[in-house]
């Protein structure tokens, strides 16, 4: 009866791992499922030691050595979870962890574990099973050969895997995965501490089964919570991108249709203007037509530029370097206007962006701040970068005249401008470029003492961990 109950409990991690895989098909869940399979095999192996009243000794001995693959493969399987997070969700390229945890060390770790498992079948590993008394019932306990310490020390490597994965969690940029790996590492460290009791013959108890059961259920719910948050956040990013794509689809055709009659109007107006038989009044009308056509063509050309601004070619780049390039390209103007720029430098921030388009955004924001400070004595622009939650925030704060609150929602609208010159597309293009990156732009605060505008760019691209 004990065996049946414990065998049933040992399958819980497997079912939860399979459920996670079915709900969220990612590379991280692949690693999680593999780890859960080995946990189930480990606990199934333990449960066999309670099956002496149901199975023959020789069958129990064979199955015990067979399922021992679970406990032996736990150390590399645990580290593999950390490896997947480090590879796909960490941007710290220079980290020493990537020299310690990589495909070669993981491969070597698995090869070593296979060697220990093969040794398990020899007389140097396990020589037999011995009956002992535990909790008032007879249970079996393995008898180890000369190299028994090899297995014990191998199992202790699990602590190193847990510690390394815990360190990896600090390097992961995505806060949801970071929290998950922290809970995953700490709770399994506690589970491992309880499971080690199975190595001691006189402390042979059910505690490891209960600990694994609690661990599996807890981690499953934490994993589901993490994945749900990631899906919600990624949907918001994709929604911004889809909105920009829809704008392009609905307006590109309209621009094409408007340009056709404009071309005809321009051609005929130029022909009519050369007609010497027309009086001055008629020529004046033709001139007005040409002016209107030229103005309309300018609007169409500028709006076409606005549409094209949403097309990005993203690659990994250092945002700090892009900001510095924007500051350099506006340096002539800042010197002419006696404007100071203070960049609070952070460590390198790597993100997948279109360098040219993003540089254009920063230049536009700096130029807008310069224009807003023309009437002020103190002319200072502060640029600050910080990683908040799963976004990179870049704030541009100036000491300008400010923007009225009632106009906050309008300044990002195409063709809305408070300037005498200009088409009013600068900030709307900035917004479109950032939306195409899955980010956004907003006014944090603005008054007579200045304005702060925040640019937000996603720090993580979730499609990188999705299985293909």
TrEMBL record:
Residues 253-461 form the Histidine kinase domain. Pfam families: HATPase_c, HisKA. The keyword Cell cycle does not apply. It comes from the Bacteria. The chain crosses the membrane at residues 31-50, 62-86, 107-127, 147-168, 180-199, 205-224. Keywords: ATP-binding, Kinase, Membrane, Nucleotide-binding, Phosphoprotein, Transferase, Transmembrane, Transmembrane helix, Two-component regulatory system. One of its GO terms (molecular function) is phosphorelay sensor kinase activity. It catalyses: ATP + protein L-histidine = ADP + protein N-phospho-L-histidine. SMART domains: HATPase_c (SM00387), HisKA (SM00388). Coiled coil: none annotated. It is an enzyme of class 2 (transferase). Its EC number is 2.7.13.3. PANTHER family: HISTIDINE KINASE 1, TWO-COMPONENT HISTIDINE KINASE. This is histidine kinase. It comes from Paenibacillus rigui.
